[in-house]
């Protein structure tokens, strides 16, 4: 397991359990306790976790909870197909996309989720040296002629309605990259409950995207 992939697994495990001992993490990642101690020290320096005697604690600002707005739907979004969503609130999505473009800097590695808002961002993306990672077929098609971009498509379980890939294969590919900036959309946000994604598949992939971008 590569160090970057191991770090993300440690963060994910701490997010689930809150606290773990060094030997538990070593067993889960199949490396030595000395390696885990170095990993924990590095992650603590980055503010991602807090060290404790013999283990580690989840940071005070962990990833927000991400839930499916439509848990009964494994992949298809309750708000309609991707094509239908491109027609909803298109002017507002264009404004959001233009604002988001101001965050881009040459040389960055970015993730665009499979939302229609991210597609509007892709349509307006300037010629710039970037690595763009996305599960969206539509976004890949939009950007494929941009010579300055390095495109990475996330494979996996394909949803024709969403025009995007989901599942463990997509998540596993994400773990191989250090992401500078993540652009995503969600169906809702509550202060106490966290984020709401369209489906369970959306929620799982979005969580992995956030881990990659930390």
TrEMBL record:
SMART domains (UniProt xref): DeoRC, HTH_DEOR
Source species, domain of life: Bacteria
PROSITE patterns with a match to the protein in the record: HTH_DEOR_1, HTH_DEOR_2
HTH deoR-type domain mapped to chain residues: 3-58
GO terms for MF: DNA binding; DNA-binding transcription factor activity
Keywords recorded for this protein, A-Z: DNA-binding, Transcription, Transcription regulation
PANTHER family given in the database record: AGA OPERON TRANSCRIPTIONAL REPRESSOR-RELATED, HTH-TYPE TRANSCRIPTIONAL REGULATOR SRLR-RELATED
Protein name (record): DeoR/GlpR transcriptional regulator
